[in-house]
Design brief:
Strand content: 15-25%
Protein name: Ribosomal protein uS12 methylthiotransferase RimO
Structural class: alpha/beta
Bound molecules: iron/sulfur cluster
InterPro entries: Elp3/MiaA/NifB-like_rSAM, Methylthiotransferase, Methylthiotransferase_CS, Methylthiotransferase_N, Methylthiotransferase_N_sf, NA-bd_OB-fold, Ribosomal_uS12_MeSTrfase_RimO, rSAM
Distance between the termini: 57 Å
CATH topology of the largest domain: pyruvate-formate lyase- activating enzyme
CATH class of the largest domain: Alpha Beta
Domain MTTase N-terminal: 9-119
Enzyme class: transferase
Cofactor: [4Fe-4S] cluster
Largest sheet: 5 strands, parallel
Shape: globular
Length: 455
Amino acid sequence: MATKFPDAPKIGMVSLGCPKNLVDSERILTKLRSDGYQMSADYAGADVVLVNTCGFLDSAKEESLEAIGEAMAENGRVIVTGCMGDEAELIRAKFPQVLAVTGAHQYEQVVNAVHDASPPIPNAFVDLVPEGGLKLTPRHYSYLKISEGCNHRCSFCIIPSIRGDLVSRRIDAVLREAEKLVSAGTKELLVISQDTSAYGVDTRHEPRQWKGREVRAHMTDMARELGQLRDADGKAPWVRLHYVYPYPHVDQVIPLMAQGLLTPYLDIPFQHASPSVLKAMKRPANEAKVLDRIHKWRAICPDITIRSSFVVGFPGETEADFQYLLDWLDEAQLDRVGAFRFEPVEGAAANALPGAVPEAVKEERYQRIMEKTAAISAAKLAAKVGRVLPVIVDEVGEPDEEDGSIGATARSQADAPEIDGNVFLRDVGEGRKAGDIFDVLIEDADEHDLYGVPV
Ligand code: SF4
């Protein structure tokens, strides 16, 4: 007779907020799976529900509280973790029945809280963790988190007060994780942190041995090593750098992009261009020569995509400041831009700044910046029509009922998942799957997306 094991407890997970939070959720789930827990896709089947919250903006807090409320109503056995977990009193006041509240990155505490709420079945005989850990993102792309916290004190941001100062991971640990991810099927690595250019500043760029050579905990060394990873078929993964501030050493990674070792893509959250607004924001690497450097980067690597985000309506922003930003954008010709209306965040220094911008003015500036950046994006994408570009497939469609043709949603090197555009493909043929990388002819473009066919 076969041995019958008791059913393993099941965990439900609600993950809110940014990709960084997703990485935390993945880590927690990986640990719980290795402790013998199973996952539940719905509230009803879960013994405990974990809500991984985000507390960055007041609107994110609202969303987090709503998610906790929903989990309480649907299941009732809820553990709260993540950024909002640092406000345990507020959560307990609203939801006295929550089983436990733990803060951001307190992996052990969350796992212990789950053990207390629903003890694991001892002696699980099987290793439940697939190589590379459990991932909530599709298997073909993975976020690689290189540090926690931030040494800057931007006046609109409360992340340093929630997450503390910069703590960088060891370079060999980062590279080992990246290597494992790639050998487990990841085709695209997305490097994330609060400030990727500052990686290793806290450890004085401590070098470690990696593959018989000394590698520093430094963005340039890391980028060079990541660019040398190969999958089982000997192919290089795409490697994308996010949250990069334009410190001088960023110039050193541009040649790596030109050589094809790094995806020619930089995500630099400029937030503004006007010197007085940048000063009031206390932004890092705020210097006047950025436009010259962008021109130089494009001279070295003409295909580089620069993505950024901007805040309009920051306290004290005048019409002249805003016009400066629009003119700057005309010059910079950034490929991808996200814009936000300034929103005060509880606890942020910026809230006390004079010169609050009326909502109607914020809205009007928001519309103007969106119009400007959409026009730049449309022109840049139109210039790609007729070119042959590599794409990575995110999803393959079902065969068309009439002619059997198959379409797919893919991305070019200019598109990071979830935040940028897509390349919609026709007639991809049979046998394609998510993560495949191949060349396509770009046939059409609109404001944000491209359309193409495999060559
Ligand atoms: S760089 Fe500024 S905005 Fe980014 S996490 Fe640090 S303080 Fe916040």
